[in-house]
């Protein structure tokens, strides 16, 4: 460890006063020491809550410093990552979870910009001003040789990329209060108890994937740390051998599981299924609900943003049959409103921007190191950028994104509405590019190949009121996606 990171005597009391609360208090209060907390999906190793608390405290000593530091943690779905993550927070530092799929160029760009004091788990070479070491349970630790005088706000605890795992230098700034309040809200509405056992299906650097870990930790439940795709035999062996009780996925995940027939023969231990990370088409939602309901397994549709830590709303499963397409009501402790451009509330079924209030709303964004010293700039109020309306009972329906509005020949066109329209024929991603509405239709050997694209182009053009020259339909074997399973629109725009 470098001298700049050694704890100076006399500064310890001040450091402790600035340190945010940590998960250890939650872990020790809400679980039995001998209860299993973490399980390695491949190796079969188990870590109890008592052992986890011990390992985190030991690891935190590695990161002790005279003041709060910025740490980059390369997040994999592993026991080592969880211990390092909890230890860095326990040591009082602010942690940026770097996505496992982040390439070397993106990581280098982020390291150059933010100059983190600590980097853990990097798969690529770091600049020469970092010295590496290896500690028990925390491999590949690197400390910056020279002290960084950058200030960190005392409440800043977690940094996440706005898209979950792309390595973007624009980060969401979250406090411990943001994180812990959202974890407890999720635990409450999902009814997570110590008998539940989740399996990781999404990156821990993605707010949805991380929320699964957080909500199960505060419930004293178990988490199987899995690194295998859901389409593999190894994933389902781990699921069944460990008697996992839930599945958490984005629409693409559930579409894949539906094709695999998983919902027709759902595992005996499965208690509930959650979906977030984008709007799932109505037909798929209905089909999954119908199949799961035969075993009394609820499908819980949810909505959230990284800017709200993870979760904003959920649809109670008993409401799904009559309100399919809705993303429900606000989570416990939150409030949803539909507003116009001036912030005035809209009426029933009037479309406007979705505004959310709650303790889980981020402190703000960071786009440069100086932003890390900024305090709470939103005061618990988030203008989501999503468009929607509420029905007579207060259930929310989304209609699109404000930034997903194209303007072609003076016409305002919702790209999300075009996607929804085409979803009845084939899975389609829609972008505006080269002054055209470009529709990429996923057509391959496993899907319907007798689609008449020329006729479909004409149908879309007529619906939008545009000449066919301004609407382009293209068959594509596989729509490119981000690590979170969402459409990769920038890549599509570049095609």
Mean pLDDT: 89
Which strand order does the major sheet show? Answer: 12-13-14-15-16-21-20-18-17
Give the CATH H-level superfamily of the largest domain. Answer: ANL, N-terminal domain
Write the CATH architecture name of the largest domain.
3-Layer(aba) Sandwich
State the end-to-end distance: 47 Å
Can you characterise this structure?
This protein has 495 residues and is α/β, with parallel strands linked by helices. It folds into two domains: 1-401, ANL, N-terminal domain (Rossmann fold, 3-Layer(aba) Sandwich); 409-493, ANL, C-terminal domain (GMP Synthetase, Chain A, domain 3). Helix content is 27%, strand content 26%. It is built from 13 helices and 26 strands. Strands 12-13-14-15-16-21-20-18-17 form a nine-stranded mixed sheet. β10, α7 (207-219) and β11 form a beta-alpha-beta unit. α3 crosses α4 and α6 (176-190) crosses α7. It is globular. The N and C termini lie far apart (47 Å).
């Amino acid at each position: 460890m470098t001298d700049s990171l050694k704890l100076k005597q006399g500064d310890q009391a001040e450091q402790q006063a600035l340190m945010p609360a940590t998960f250890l208090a939650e872990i020790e209060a809400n679980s039995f020491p001998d209860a299993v907390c973490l399980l390695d999906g491949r190796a079969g190793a188990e870590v109890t809550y008592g052992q986890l608390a011990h390992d985190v405290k030991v690891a935190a000593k590695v990161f002790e410093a005279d003041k709060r530091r910025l740490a980059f943690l390369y997040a994999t779905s592993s026991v080592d990552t969880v211990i390092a993550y909890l230890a860095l927070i326990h040591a009082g530092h602010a942690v940026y979870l770097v996505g496992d799929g982040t390439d070397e160029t993106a990581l280098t760009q982020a390291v150059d910009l933010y100059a983190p004091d600590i980097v853990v788990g990097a798969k690529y070479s770091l600049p020469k001003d970092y010295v590496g070491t290896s500690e028990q349970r925390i491999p590949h630790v690197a400390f910056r040789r020279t002290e960084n005088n950058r200030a960190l706000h005392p409440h800043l605890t977690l940094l996440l990329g706005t898209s979950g795992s792309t390595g973007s230098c624009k980060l969401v700034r979250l406090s411990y209060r943001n994180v812990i309040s959202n974890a407890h809200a999720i635990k409450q509405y999902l009814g997570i108890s110590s008998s539940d056992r989740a399996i990781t299906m999404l990156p821990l650097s993605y707010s949805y994937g991380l929320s699964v870990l957080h909500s199960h930790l505060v419930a004293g439940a178990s988490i199987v740390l899995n690194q295998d795709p859901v389409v593999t035999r190894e994933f389902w062996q781990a699921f069944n051998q460990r008697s996992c009780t839930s599945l958490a996925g984005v629409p693409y995940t559930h579409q894949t599981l539906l094709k695999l027939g998983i919902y027709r023969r759902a595992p005996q231990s499965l208690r509930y299924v959650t979906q977030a990370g984008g709007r799932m088409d109505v037909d798929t939602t209905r089909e999954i609900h119908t199949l799961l309901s035969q075993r009394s397994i609820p499908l819980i549709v949810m909505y959230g943003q990284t800017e709200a830590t993870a979760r904003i709303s959920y649809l109670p499963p008993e409401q799904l049959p009559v309100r399919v397409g809705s993303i429900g009501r606000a989570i416990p402790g939150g409030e949803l409103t539909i507003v116009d451009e001036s912030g005035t509330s809209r009426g029933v079924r009037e479309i406007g921007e979705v505004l959310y209030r709650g303790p889980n709303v981020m402190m703000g964004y960071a786009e440069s190191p100086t932003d890390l010293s900024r305090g709470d700039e939103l005061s618990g109020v988030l203008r989501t950028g999503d468009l929607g309306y509420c029905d007579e009972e207060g259930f929310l329906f989304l209609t699109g994104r404000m930034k997903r509005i194209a303007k072609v020949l003076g016409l305002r066109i919702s790209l999300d509405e075009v996607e929804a329209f085409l979803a009845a024929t084939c899975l389609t991603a829609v972008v505006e590019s080269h002054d055209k509405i470009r529709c990429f239709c996923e057509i391959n050997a496993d899907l319907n190949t007798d689609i008449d694209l020329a006729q479909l182009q004409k149908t879309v053009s007529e619906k939008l009121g545009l000449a066919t020259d301004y609407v382009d339909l293209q068959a594509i074997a596989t729509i490119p996606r981000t690590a979170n399973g969402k459409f990769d629109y920038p890549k599509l725009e570049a095609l």
